[in-house]
From TrEMBL:
InterPro entries, per the entry: CTDL_fold, Sulfatase_Mod_Factor_Kinase, SUMF_dom, SUMF_sf
Superkingdom in the source lineage: Bacteria
Molecular function terms, GO-annotated: formylglycine-generating oxidase activity
Transmembrane segments: none
Source species of the chain: Variovorax guangxiensis
UniProt keyword annotations, A-Z: Signal
Signal peptide feature range: 1-17
Protein name per Swiss-Prot or TrEMBL: Formylglycine-generating enzyme family protein
A Pfam family this chain is assigned to: FGE-sulfatase
All copies of domain Sulfatase-modifying factor enzyme-like, residue ranges: 34-327
Region annotation Disordered: where it falls in the sequence: 106-135
């Protein structure tokens, strides 16, 4: 009797150690959001590539840009001690609309009356003071309308950090499990999916062509002044792409690079990596700007690197910024999970 129990336990443990049981590798919640099981694990976070190396790899860029990346270092060990579910895709227009309609939440782009940003083919960045690539901020634009066509399966944009957190809270109450934005460490761990290269697809930006929607030869004709920075190739997408259109990373996650920037839970601090804890770094205790990661459909490849950190105030809404949700494991799932 004892030996058969021991054998059974071993079989379960061995199965879990090899790979999470299929029951727990993917999951679709009641609102239709697909999640991928991300196991606990360790990785090296950040980048310590020197300016000279980067200048050689990205010759079109002003070398001064490569001296402004101090917040990516030092490279440091991070342990993600708890497995979690991460959205297979960025939150889509349809999913966000479902949230808005069911919850009554009024997204900030509509609530404060100032709108968002949008693409207007007659707008010329060269005639503006800031040289911004998009028109706005204007009530003409919001999460409903970024000025270019978006299907229901495109990632929602013009959503603020506060909007993203509101959706996570609504889902938490609805599902009885915690939904939230990933921490910056969870995001980079998931984006790298075991890689140490600049992108999960490799070091060469051209490897992104099959794995990410970034600023490429399809997008460049709309912004000719930045043509020199467009990826050398066509990814087929001038604006946002339907989520999941490109190849996934080794965790089965789509669009971690490109399509839309993704809000993370953390405040941003330049010096955080030098003082962050090894286990589950939560980000600085306070700050004024929130982290966003991964680059977008309008982002030059260099800024879509796994280690690149960008940020904005929590009420920022923009044509390039969306989010992806994390769902924490329920207690019974944690017990079964490959820790
Ligand atoms: Ca593109
Ligand atoms: Ca993305």
């Amino acid at each position: 009797m004892h030996s058969s129990i021991a054998l059974l336990s071993c079989a379960l443990l061995c199965a879990c150690a090899a790979a999470p049981s299929s029951k727990f590798t993917k999951f679709t919640d009641a609102t239709g959001i697909d999640f991928v099981h991300i196991p606990a694990g360790a990785f090296r976070m950040g980048s310590d590539e020197d300016a000279q190396t980067l200048a050689q790899a990205f010759p079109a860029y002003d070398p001064a840009r490569f001296t402004q990346l101090a917040d990516e270092g030092p490279v440091h060990a991070v342990r993600i001690t708890r497995a979690f579910w991460l959205g297979r895709h960025e939150v889509t227009v349809a999913q966000f609309r479902r949230f808005v309609e069911a919850s009554g939440h009024v997204p900030e782009s509509e609530a404060d009356g100032t709108g968002g940003y949008g693409f207007n083919p007659t707008y010329d960045p060269g005639t503006t003071v800031r040289g911004d690539a998009f028109e706005g901020r204007s009530p003409r634009y919001s999460w409903r309308n970024p000025g270019f066509a978006q299907g229901d399966d495109h990632p929602v944009v013009n959503v603020t950090w506060n909007d993203a957190v509101a959706m996570a809270r609504w889902l938490s109450a609805k599902e009885g499990v915690t939904y939230r934005l990933p921490t910056e460490a969870e995001w980079e761990y998931a984006a790298r999916a075991g890689t140490r290269t600049r992108f999960s697809t490799g070091d060469d930006p051209r490897t992104l062509l099959k794995g990410a929607n970034v600023f490429d030869q399809n997008a460049a004709p709309h912004w000719p002044r930045w043509r020199a920075f467009a990826l050398d190739g066509h990814d087929g997408q001038a604006f946002t792409a339907p989520v999941g259109r490109f190849a996934p990373n080794a965790f089965g996650l789509y669009d971690m690079h490109g399509n839309v920037w993704e809000w993370c839970a953390d405040w941003h601090a330049d010096d955080y990596y030098a003082r962050s804890p090894v286990d589950d770094p939560p980000g600085p205790e306070d700050g004024s700007v929130r982290v966003r990661r991964g680059g977008s459909w309008h982002t030059w490849a260099f800024y879509a690197r796994s280690s690149f950190r960008n940020w904005n105030s929590p009420e920022t809404r923009y044509t390039l910024v969306g989010f992806r949700l994390l769902r924490e494991l329920a207690p019974h799932e944690s017990a079964m999970s490959n820790r």
